[in-house]
Design brief:
Blueprint: H1 3-24, H2 30-46, H3 49-54, E1 57-62, H4 67-77, E2 81-86, H5 89-102, E3 108-111, H6 130-136, H7 139-156, E4 160-161, H8 186-202, E5 206-212, H9 233-238, H10 242-247, E6 254-257, H11 278-287, E7 293-296, H12 302-305, H13 310-320, E8 325-326, H14 331-343, H15 349-366, H16 379-384, H17 387-398, E9 400-404, H18 408-414, E10 420-424, H19 431-438, E11 443-446, H20 452-464, E12 467-472, H21 487-497, E13 502-506, E14 521-524, H22 530-540
Parallel strand pairs: 1-2, 1-8, 2-3, 3-4, 4-5, 5-6, 6-7, 10-11, 10-12, 12-13, 13-14
Antiparallel strand pairs: 9-14
């Protein structure tokens, strides 16, 4: 990049940052600020010590299983909030109202819904994953997705979304982030996240970015064990911390700290960064200037419960600089431990009041004092409203052609559909195959057959066909077990990918491509939603061209940002 290009990028980033700041960080009127402070101070002074500490707790709720326990936490301990993980939408809203009626200090509610409430609630569709948004690389679509998520939260009366992921997915073997990241390009990750956050916060929802200081370069799932980040401080500063440095000045309201061992930031052996004052207090809050809410990642995760008791975890989290303690396994013990630490002077009044008052002020801002009256009738229908249109728009922008060495896509477009052969490796038809058949496709080859003699005949059909589309579906999004590809399917796709008359269409994670880097013609479609499959059909029927670009590097020849464009399109 030359000096002129660098200057242009800096100006664009500054303009985006200013626009973002203006959107989500509007000045608060003096009267509003005074009323909020009066309420916060009044509530704080009215609470006994244990109830002040309890405001820092947010419990996990499964509407079908642990609600008696949650009910007890609200009525007896007076915890500050609830995070709902699963349940029927109408039932969840009814439960939320019942819990709110029992709470002396209004509760605030959260969900972990990175691709919308379909991630958690049945009968609600999904919005595109972050990696798909990264492939589309369109800020207007990112904003649209953020607004759609914000609208869902507004309808349900949920105040906080533990999203988006700001992790730079620089490790292809990352078992837990992967498709949850916008990609591996720090500028694009920051920009897409910026607009998703803006969309949510326009609807009054607090977006909580995660997992500070960066979970992208790991090959361990922090739900199971403590990942070790071996990068130097310079590398972290250059890459993983970049999105936070970009978004904090723009008005980011909340950050989640990750359970990660990062020796470059704190050399204490096996100390999770979420429990490190050097990481949370010194780096995030003081050096990076973040004055918003700091949430821990789940304190029920094995990466930390293997190392500390629940009470010790809670105390260490608060001492490190976190404000809200998520999913403590024993909130009563934690509250008692923090109380005793306060009485011994280990936790100062200034430290406690800082976090409690931040929580109370945020509650006031999201409207917990307002009477939420949304009717639960047809709530699932309302939550699904506009989702198909958004999925369609993102799919059309995201589908990526990674190669078309012999201009096969254009050749297929010019052909009669009866002259095309489709190869499927699944026993189950998907929409892509069904719609092609509806439009007149006659030749379908089921290649994944146990009988080797029959498979030999099928190969003869494939090699003699002039134009072949390989339908790769039913994949897993995560890299576990090679995205669900068994050894037979993998071998078959590798052989097909080498043929000049074959275009491979992958409805799944782009990292699947690392199994066949020399593919002659391939489209990566990122997921298997109906709208995605229909968009893929449109590419072969001349209605649209592939517009997306790879958000991650999958092969030496297929780097982040790669996209094949044919001069004949």
């Amino acid at each position: 990049m030359n000096i002129q290009q660098l200057f242009f990028v800096m100006i664009c980033c500054l303009a985006s940052s200013q626009a973002f700041s203006q959107s989500i960080a509007q000045p608060t009127p003096k009267e509003y600020t005074m009323k909020r402070q009066q309420w916060v101070d009044s509530v704080y002074q009215s609470l006994p010590l244990e109830k002040k500490i309890a405001q820092l707790y947010m419990a996990i709720a499964h509407t079908k299983s642990n609600m008696p326990h949650v009910d007890k936490l609200v009525k007896e301990l007076g915890i500050g909030g609830i995070c709902f993980m699963q349940g029927d939408p109408a039932e969840q809203m009814t439960i939320m109202r019942a819990l709110q009626a029992k709470a002396k200090i209004p509760l605030w509610f959260s969900m972990d819904a990175e691709w919308g409430m379909g991630m958690r609630l049945p009968n609600v569709g999904n919005l595109p994953r972050a990696l798909t948004i990264g492939a589309a690389n369109d800020t207007s679509l990112a904003l649209r997705v953020g607004r759609a998520i914000g609208r869902q939260f507004h309808l349900m009366g949920i105040h906080i979304n533990f999203a988006p992921v700001l992790d730079i997915n620089s490790n292809p073997n990352n078992p837990v982030i992967n498709y949850r990241s916008f990609g591996e390009n720090k500028e694009k990750v920051s920009q897409m996240a910026m607009y998703v956050i803006r969309g949510m916060q326009e609807l009054g929802v607090i977006a909580c970015a995660k997992h500070f200081p960066g979970h992208g370069n790991t090959d361990v799932d922090s739900h199971l064990s403590l990942p070790l980040i071996k990068e130097s401080f310079e590398s972290l500063e250059r890459t993983d911390l970049y999105p936070y440095r970009s978004l904090i000045p723009a008005g980011l309201k909340a950050v989640m700290t990750g359970h990660l061992s990062v020796p470059a930031l704190d050399a204490t052996p096996n100390l999770p960064s979420s429990l490190s004052s050097k990481v949370v207090q010194d780096l995030l809050i003081q050096k990076m200037g973040f004055d918003g809410l700091v949430f821990t990642d789940g304190l029920n995760m094995s990466s930390v419960t293997k190392l500390y008791s629940s009470a010790a975890l809670d105390l260490r989290s608060l001492m490190a600089g976190n404000d809200v303690l998520l999913f403590s396994k024993h909130s009563d013990q934690g509250i008692d431990t923090i109380r005793r630490a306060y009485e011994k002077g280990i936790i100062s009044e200034a430290r406690l009041s800082l976090s409690v008052k931040k929580v109370l002020a945020a509650k006031y801002d999201v409207g917990v004092l307002k009477n939420f009256k949304k009717d639960t009738t047809d709530i699932a229908r309302d939550l699904n409203d506009s989702l198909p249109e958004i999925r369609k728009a993102v799919a059309q922008a995201a589908i990526t052609c990674v190669n078309d060495e012999f201009d096969l896509i254009q050749s297929i477009r010019k052909s009669d559909i009866k002259d095309i052969t489709m190869v499927t490796l699944s026993q189950k038809q998907n929409m892509f195959e069904t719609e092609f058949v509806r439009q007149g496709l006659k030749s379908i080859v089921q290649l994944n057959l146990p009988d080797s003699n029959k498979r030999k005949l099928q190969w003869e059909r494939i090699r003699s066909a002039s134009k072949v589309i390989v339908n790769v579906s039913g994949l897993l999004q995560s890299p576990a077990k090679n995205f669900g590809l068994d050894s037979l399917k993998l071998s078959l796709i590798q052989q097909l990918a080498e043929l000049p008359n074959v275009c491979v269409v992958i409805f799944g994670n782009p990292y699947v491509l690392r199994n066949f880097c020399d593919v002659k013609c391939a489209l990566i479609c990122y997921d298997e939603e109906t709208e995605t499959q229909m968009a893929a059909i449109e590419i072969f029927t001349r209605k649209m061209n592939p517009k997306g670009q790879l958000p991650v590097s999958v092969c030496p020849k297929l780097k982040e940002g790669h996209a094949f464009r044919s001069p004949s399109w």
